[in-house]
Amino acid sequence: MTKQLLFCAFVGTLTACQHEADIQPTSTTLAAELVGTYRTNSYLDPSYVALSASQMPYAELKAESDSTVTLVYTKLYPEKASLSLPHVALSRQTNGVQLRLADSSIGTLQTDRVFTNNGMEKQGKLLRLAIQNDPQNILNFSGSK
Length: 145
Description:
By secondary structure, this protein is mainly beta. It is 14% helix and 49% strand.
């Protein structure tokens, strides 16, 4: 009985004295989470159903600081054109991230249902933009990473 008790105490001591590494918080910033290229397809935006995959517009987010990015929107059809918006501020909301430019909301990034190029549904990051360049021209974009 004493041998079993000593053995259990020995095993208990060994397991209790193991060195455990502390869990360190990740140091990713809000901008680092969002950086990347967001592409659309005819499932995310049916207005592009007549375009091939190589003609679809896309948006890029490039980090400037912890909470600001540069947004570059590129349209490939009918002619290639780019719109660059620097100093887009990011703020975390309960349902995602809001993108703001000059005190007005220009879009959101949320985890939502997204559709791949072949129509398969999955969970992913969905970027929605609504930017008014001038009174007659509004840019709408929906894309996923």
